[in-house]
Amino acid sequence: MKRTLLLMFSILCVLFMQNAKAQSTQLSGRITDNGTQKPLSGVSVSVKGKNTGAITNGDGLFELKTNVPATLVISLIGYARQEVEVASAQAINVNLVPAAEELNQVVVSASRVEESILRSPVSIEKMDSRAVQQTPSANYFDGLVNMKSLDMVTSSLTYKQINTRGFNSTGNSRFLQLVDGVDNQPSGLGFAMGNLFGPHDIDVESAELIPGAASALYGPIAFNGMLNTRTKNPYEYQGLSAQTKFGVNHIGDGTGMGAKPMYDLAVRYAKAFNNKFAFKAAASYLKGTDWYANDYTDIDPNTPAANRGPINPGRNALNIYGDEVAQTIPSIGRVSRTGYEEKDLATYGVYSLKLLGALHYRITDRLEAIYQGNFNQGTAQYTGSNRFVINDFKFIQHRLELRGSNFYVRAYSNQERSTNSYNTRALGQHINRTWVKDLAGNTVSPDKADATWFERYTAAYNGAIASVGSKDHSLARTFADQGRILPGSSEYESAKDRLIQTRGLSGAGILSECSLRHVEGMYDFSSALKFINFQIGGNYRKYYLNTGGTLFDDKDKNLTNEEYGVFAQASKSFWKDVLKLTVSGRYDKNENFDGRFTPRASAVISPNENHHFRVSYQTGFRNPTIGDQYIKLNVGPIIILGGAPVNSAGLNAYENSVTIASFGAFASAFGSDMAKGTPFPQAIANNKDKLVKSNVPYIKSEKVKSYEIGYKGIIAKKLLFDVNYYYSQYTDFMINTVVARAKSDILLPDGKVNPAAAAELLGADRQLFQLYTNAADKVSIQGVSAGLTYSLPKNYKISANTTWIDFNIGDADQNNIPAFNTPEWKTNLILGNSKLTEKIGFNVAWHWQSSFDWYGTFTENAPGKVKSYNLLDAQISYRIPSLKTIVKLGAANLTNQYIVQAYGSPAVGGLYYVSLNFDQLFR
């Protein structure tokens, strides 16, 4: 891959180096505000079709060299973009007119080329740098919740997961997050950790959201949508900028532990030299106290709902861990071990460190080379099948890019270093196995601890312990818990630290040092073809897995996975731009799966420049994650086995097993016959035909087909209105199924069940497997989203949007379909004025969503209610021009309602902050 990349770079450099010899002309000018005639600093002045450009200084002046004639593109957030034709070396004076730019923004993500958001072939939302600066949320990523169609789930103060159009989860492998074109997912996790490892607000230029399938251009991860965040170019955003933010949370949370501080410090510096070489460096550090997961609702599935609660002997509290270990004791009933609260197991002191450095060199006015390196480290809680602490997790990225006016070649690598992370629930269970004593007072080994604890409980409850009253669950538990190590004690902390460092089934620690390497490119032939816009591109990716054998079968092995994809897109306008047709297609191939072709087609009808109607057909697919393919984890009674054929080679699990349901029926009937005195061979013969050979296919891709119609238009030059309706059909959802394998062939040559195999299934030769596969069921969703933005007099702006989504499971088996986990309704309302006076501005955002049932592996897919809630975020800003500083006072969740966004995750309350934002250019 390295040789190929270097060769591509060399060829492209030779092809474009000839442009370096072209003669250039020095241009200069001044940019002012049309109304006040005051100079504007930080205005971007670029040459259309080239990389050449400059920014204005504090006096509104700029200089640049380029060939003439040329077209200068002059832009600044908050002003109408202008294009100026220049025929010779002349002074250029331009007055920019203030405008509500968000009414007609330029986007890139919808088609991979610049286009008006009004004529985008698919639904797309955008947050520009002005919206980033003015968001009342704690940061730009949290502020994305105000976009229509987007869902956000909080697992931690430093980790929020986003999704669009249903099938939401706390670790979303169906949604792609790009930062400057780089996939932001740690490859071992298989999903992006929100913005834990993304850019800080201080360096964010824009964020574009595509809701729904985007696989036709971006591949398998963009199954449910894509977020493309772009950071600030060092040529256009120069100088020093800094932010200090102090906040406080946990006010009135009911825990009695008091309010906690939060600090967020960031600095960025960028500089360009002679419009040829530029660099930027940025650093940020956030530190705070995480939200507490302290819901102690009893969710034990084996206790009738009416009998659950704090005094239930078999209590399994939602955020207490260790009490999942339970037994049904004859004549006593269901009893669970005493667990530990999450606050005593988790790491609630969370932080996020982000370091960035980038070098840009313009080889010619059409060719630019870029290197960027990111180092990220942080701590967050993640709600998955358990509650996990992503602790001191390091994420390192390198990007090398060669970009021209009509092409780019990009290579990057992502590396993760997880050596301190751990499973909170497993930690509680293992601590419980370190202190149990037998009836003689001797501490037993961990493998005997659970059984011994239940023996003590049984003896005490049945009156076998002289000093303990019988038939009393409370006294029996107290006796069984004698010697229990308590949180805060040196013994507890020692056991906790040791078990976090112990990986695999005997501890709680998680090791992952996985990585990926990726190379991609695109070429735009439009300028050469003239009569049609045409682009082609492709990518190659390779994963490198290393979990030390704790999760994958990769100990002392070089376990890798490769995939590639190619795409093409053509668009053509007819009848003086009244009709625009776009057709896209992409082919992807993973080494373990059949190739997949995903087409997309759209038509945009524009009767005039203000009204645009669109219709589209989109397809998408999702390959199994690395975990879905390669997990091979023996947890004692069952082996969890990923669905890649190579992963199960030699285990005979897919080929020679029976369904778990048929095994249960067979075992029950066999036991009944034996109880009647039927001889063993006869009991086998009588019931073996109840066994059904499994027919579990190897795992394959999920698929979606989506149809969409929409309208976007500007009314009276002040109102932007956008509405769309979509209908999507899903097939081949990935699921798990359990089978039982025998050593002998399940079926004889005549197709009948083999008695030898049936006998083996009843004994030690039986092995249970949890296999990854796909369901044949089909489901559909439909939805409507609508939004408007209205520019009011005196700089006021109001935005509102609402989204309705409906899930139709049809005849599908609920157990074969991922949890939908999406509210039927959600609404956002935003009111702001960035120039209430010359120095004061404000912004208020209100979010509401309806209630729904959350299904997740954390609760073994038992539903938990996520209640309807509303959030009010607000900020007021004060500009101090003499200090080039903006002071912001704000609150996320101003009314301090403690809300849960995913069942089992923490309750999130208000965060109140004050920030100082310094910008040398003071845009």
UniProtKB/TrEMBL annotation:
Main location: membrane
Superkingdom of origin organism: Bacteria
Limits of the TonB-dependent receptor plug domain: 119-225
Topology within the bilayer: Multi-pass membrane protein
PROSITE patterns, A to Z: TONB_DEPENDENT_REC_3
InterPro entries to which the protein is assigned, alphabetical: Beta-barrel_TonB (IPR000531), Beta-barrel_TonB_sf (IPR036942), CarboxyPept-like_regulatory (IPR008969), Plug_dom (IPR012910), Plug_dom_sf (IPR037066), TonB-dep_rcpt-like (IPR039426)
Pfam families in the cross-refs: CarbopepD_reg_2 (PF13715), Plug (PF07715), TonB_dep_Rec_b-barrel (PF00593)
Sequence ranges assigned to domain TonB-dependent receptor-like beta-barrel in this UniProt record: 371-894
Positions in coiled-coil regions: none
Span of the signal peptide: 1-22
UniProt subcellular location: Cell outer membrane
Keywords: Cell outer membrane, Membrane, Receptor, Signal, TonB box, Transmembrane, Transmembrane beta strand, Transport
PANTHER family listed in its UniProt record: HEMOGLOBIN AND HEMOGLOBIN-HAPTOGLOBIN-BINDING PROTEIN 1-RELATED (PTHR30069:SF29), TONB-DEPENDENT OUTER MEMBRANE RECEPTOR (PTHR30069)
Entry similarity comment: Belongs to the TonB-dependent receptor family.
Name of this protein: TonB-dependent receptor
Species annotation: Dyadobacter chenhuakuii
